[in-house]
Amino acid sequence: KPVIFTPDTIICGYGSVTVYVIPDSNLTYKWTNGSSDTLAVIFSTGPISLTAYDMYGCKKLSNTIYIYQDIIAQPGINFYPSQVLCNDDSILAYLTNMSYGATYAWSNGFVGDSLMIDSSFSVFVIASSSMGCLISSDTTQITKHIINAPGIFSTDSLLCNNDTVTVFYLPDSDFLKAPHHAYCTAVFEEAF
Description:
Strand order of the largest sheet: 1-8-5
Largest sheet: 3 strands, mixed
């Protein structure tokens, strides 16, 4: 009896599987998909077997293996309110194009269908089916943008008629590290 040396197999997506038998030079072979070689590339699901023939026309059927197909969709990621992450904000990453029964593992290890993001990192998700097939989403780089509030400097002042006070401000903390810049000034003519 010829033996197919490929176990029951799962085709993930629209792939294929190669099945084979150890050849005997005194036999010819015919697979259920029509191939007459010692191996066959299978693109469809279902039972697969082969029949071995000797030169007298005697035949023997092999064991039967089963090919299963598992189609899992590539997940998409959307961001709310947007992909821009500023200061102390956070954004919600949530999945689209989900497959029934799949689990989703995010690039930071969290498992679920959404993720709150409050720091910079590369975001992707890997979908895993119950049959063990995996597919990854595209990767999106999230960068946290920090904008420091400008500092305003002045002494306490009491404004009287026609008096002025000068207020100095620094646009951001990097301003202090750049000695070639000068202070910006604003002159207020009226009391606050």
